[in-house]
Amino acid sequence: MLRLIKEFKPEQLIWYGQLLVKMVIVDQNFSPSELQFVKEVLAQIPDEKERKSLVGYLEKQQEPPLRQPKSLNKEVLAQVFIQLIHVALADNELHAAELALLKSLSRLFDFHPNYLKDCLAWAQDGIYIRRLQQKLAKRTLSLRNELVPVKKLNTEQKKWYIDAVVAALIHEGLKEEKELNLLKRMFASTESREEQILLRNHILLQHRPPIRRPPPMPEGLTLLILMEVALIGARNGDMSYQSSQHLRLLADVSRLSAKSYNELMEWINQSVLWKKRERDLLNQVRLNSSEEEEEAKKQGRLITHPDNNSIQVRKVQCFVCGSGKDLPLFQLRHLSQKTSQNIFGTPIFLGANEGFDPIDFNRIKVVVCPACLFASPKKEHFIRQKKDQTPEELSDPRFKGEWIRQVLEREEQIEPYKKQISTIQRSLPAAIACYDLAIDAVRHYHAHLPKESNQGQLINLYLTLAELKMQAGLREEAENDLRLAMDLAKQIYLKGRAPQLVLRCARLLLISALYFEDEKNIGEYMNFFHRYKTDKAEGFKLQDRQEFMKLYQEVSGIFSQRERYKKSALKGFKLL
């Protein structure tokens, strides 16, 4: 890792230093060796002021803030993440505070939940392997303390240890910095200039010291030396034939008991597999973005917003006018915000998770083409890559022609907010104007290609708009939008053919009736669910039946607590 950070830019190095300091401090039980490792990293920071600031965090045991990494690819982020797990495991435990920090970092790095799950499972396996090692060695071991107590060895024991390890290092090519540091510690452990020269010659001439029977020493100490040799051979997740033969010969000449040898080999095999899994985690990083989005990032068409790290900006083009000009589509970073839902299921954004900037995504989710003012919250309604085909609902020439002919009328509607529609600083009036455009667009293409899914889109637009207005204290306007959504839902409820959409509309109508205290319709909509369960759900396929029963249990729970859903008992559209 020290080799990697030498390639970091100063700002990236400061960021990495902050992560290390934060990881060490959250444990509140860090060892002197951990502290020394962190200080070694901090010493690489060229900015003296920043370096002293981070050392100050350590000394005061204060956590530095989490920040978004910049200009680091997913492979580097994975290396940083795995290294931080190693730091967290220094005391052979993964404490709750460390786990919470790792989860926050996973969100910040945009790792897929399954990738985080794999990393944490790997960490737990590391704890098990470390405990197995301690049981075998019959002593407490720290990930950053020396495995073999070199200074406690007598001269003959030290020579055998050095020969065994130098031979292992020569097999592996002496490439890792930590292994070179191990040699330095060996040189420092002896005052004999002659012995130091002999060792250096072994290395420079790539000459392997002869394997000989060890001098008298406790079996536990022999096991520690063999563990050191095994870790060198297994550093990349596999062990070469030469390394495994070297280890076997050392075990033979050491005359280990059969029990100790078997336990050693079990630990070695588990350690090799663990290192291999580490290598796989580093090489198979999974993000929340798709392959297509990853390609867009490489092309510079999908970037993190410079003023808000919770938002990614995607360069897209308009299917409707075909102007060929880039316009921004805003995407919310996965798990960047603390979210809830109102009683209708509309998302509510409550603030940012640690390391992210707050944003009310409902205000900016509608994309507006500045040229023709076509608007939609659906990314599929815009050209993200050249091979994208025009969606069926937008391909009708009658819709396109009609929409473009009416641009001037819409210009007046959007004119006061024209400068805001391409930014994330949309005022409430600007956001409302964008939703009005999106609603108008759906109504226009629905007129030429009527589909129930279009009506479902309209319902969602009205409900989100109603939530925005309710948050702004515009209750009457919000309730008007709710009633428009209810009118559309009633049409689908009575005549709809798509079962899932019909059920969602029935849920909306039930909760709306509770909100407005419409006793007559409350009973009707709840009876609908009872009849549906008896008459239709039993004939569903297993998955569809399970989904219906989940919805049925939800609405039954709502009905049983219907007093909570009255307007007078709510805060806006939210449960108290």
Verbal overview:
With 576 residues, this protein is mainly alpha-helical. It has helices at residues 2-5, 10-27, 32-42, 48-60, 74-88, 96-109, 113-137, 155-172, 177-188, 193-204, 219-233, 241-254, 258-283, 291-298, 397-405, 407-414, 428-448, 452-471, 475-495, 499-515, 519-535, 542-560, and strands at residues 302-304, 311-318, 327-332, 337-341, 347-352, 367-368, 375-376, 382-383. The strands form three sheets. Strands 1, 2, 3 and 8 form a four-stranded antiparallel beta sheet that branches. The protein has a two-stranded antiparallel sheet with strand order 4-5. A two-stranded antiparallel ribbon has the order 6-7. A hairpin with a 6-residue loop joins strand 6 (367-368) and strand 7 (375-376). The model has no long low-confidence stretch (mean pLDDT 88).
The class by helix and strand makeup works out as mainly alpha
Distance between the termini: 49 Å
Rg, please?
Answer: 32 Å
Q: Tell me the β content.
A: 5-15%
The ordered H/E elements are: HHHHHHHHHHHHHHEEEEEEEEHHHHHHHH
Largest sheet: 4 strands, antiparallel
Uncertain runs: none
Rough shape? elongated
Count up the helices: 22
Task: Compute the average pLDDT.
Answer: 88
Question: In total, how many beta strands?
Answer: 8
Helix content: 55-70%
